[in-house]
Design goal:
Layout: H1 17-37, E1 38-39, E2 44-45, E3 92-95, E4 110-114, E5 120-121, E6 131-137, E7 141-143, E8 154-167, E9 170-181
Parallel strand pairs: 3-4, 4-6, 5-7
Antiparallel strand pairs: 1-2, 6-8, 7-8, 8-9
Amino acid sequence: MANITQILGTDSVSSSRVVINDNFAAINSDLADIHALLNTNDESISLSGAAAVGSLNVYSGKVIINQSAFTSTVPTNINAKLTLGAGLNLSVKNIATGDLPTDNSYVHGIYKIDGTSVASVNLGLGDQGQEIFLIAENANVAVSVTNIAGATGLTINSNGCVSLKFAGTKWFISGNHGATIV
């Protein structure tokens, strides 16, 4: 930011000429720095560091990320067709002790449960439209069915998997391999 020297009311214009010129030089220097970042001819901004903004409106309707990953730490709605050119990688949570997450707190897409140390798990409520996969490793795992539509029993056999989608107030089984569903 330009360091501007104040001209006092008791100063004369002729004696303040150097101060005025120095002030304009400081402002001009800052404007040159801004111009290096903001090109009004090309309507572009060039930053080498991070940009922190409250919101970003892209009027062309496109977001193009060429050199790094796009990460969002908040839920993101995409209101148009989404094409994944290189596939979708879901995050994996290994559960060797304890239980599945509590209601509405599933943050991973795949939960691998070690059946040798966790014989049964409680399936809490999910978020609307959410999909998760439960995998049993090393031994069978019993899953509570309180929040599963239409099931009275669910056991995922060792190395088996169940795919679940949440809608309304229940999980719906959308696929399975090596699971016993009653």
